[in-house]
C-alpha cells in the first residue's frame, strides 16, 4: 500500500514537472542559452581551483585531482537536489501570494506540488559541469567493486542530504515568510564548504558538519575511502560508509519539520 502511494506521488511529481518542461521548450533558444550560461558560470568555480593549484602543489595534502573529486561529488549532489526540488525554497513567496492556499485545495500532496512547481531543466548546465569534473577525477581512483558501491551510494546519499537541507531549512519560512537566504546558507553554503578538503578548517568545524549539519557525509568521508586515505581529524573509519544513514536521517528530520510547518500554517486570509 505504501509503495503504491509513493509511486502515485512520484507520478504526480513527474506530470507537474513535465508541464513546466513543455512550457520552457516553447522558447528553445532561451532555454539552451540559459542552460549553457548556468553551466559556464558554475564552471568558473573549478577554473578558480585550477588557477589556485597553478601556484600550489597541494592543499593541506590534497592534490588537484583529489580536490576535483570532492568538488565534483559535492556539486553533483547539490545539482541533483536543486534540479529536482529547488523550487521548495520559494515557499515564502507562495505563502505571501496565497499560492500555497491554492495548492492545498488540490488532490496532490503539498510537498510534491511545491517541489515540482516551476521545474526547470536549465539547471542541467550545473549538473553537466559537475558530472564532467567528477568523471575526470574518477580516472585517478584505484577502483575496486566496494569503491564503486561507495561512490554510487555517496552520490545518492549526498543528494538525499541536500534534499533534506532544502526542505528542512525552507520550512523556516512557514514562521518567518521570508528566510530564503537563511536556507541558502546551509544548502549552497554547505556545498561550497564540502568542495574543499575539510581538514583546512578547525576540527570544531568538522564536528559541526558531521553531527549538526551533516554535509561532511555528502562527500568528505566516502571520498577518503575512495582515495585510500585515513581521516586527518581522527574520526571513526565507520563514518566513511555512513553516508546512506546520514541521508535517511536528514530527510526524515526534514519531513518532520515540514509536517510541523504545514500544521502551523494558517493561510494568508486572502
Q: How does the SSE layout of this entry go?
A:
Blueprint: H1 2-24, H2 28-53, H3 64-85, H4 91-97, H5 99-104, H6 110-116, H7 124-138, H8 145-170, H9 173-176, H10 180-193, H11 203-211, H12 220-226, H13 243-264
What does this structure look like?
The chain contains 13 helices and no strands. With 270 residues, the chain is mainly alpha-helical. The chain has one domain. The model has no long low-confidence stretch (mean pLDDT 88). This is ABC-2 family transporter protein. Keywords: Membrane, Transmembrane, Transmembrane helix.
List keywords for this structure.
about 270 residues, mainly alpha, 13 helices, about 70% helix, ABC-2 family transporter protein, ABC-2_transporter-like, transmembrane helix, membrane
Shape: globular
How large is the count of helical segments? 13
Mean pLDDT: 88
Give me the strand/helix succession: HHHHHHHHHHHHH
Helix content: 55-70%
End-to-end Cα distance: 37 Å
Radius of gyration from CA coordinates = 19 Å
Count of beta strands: 0
Outline of the structure:
This protein is mostly helical. The chain is built from 13 helices and no strands.
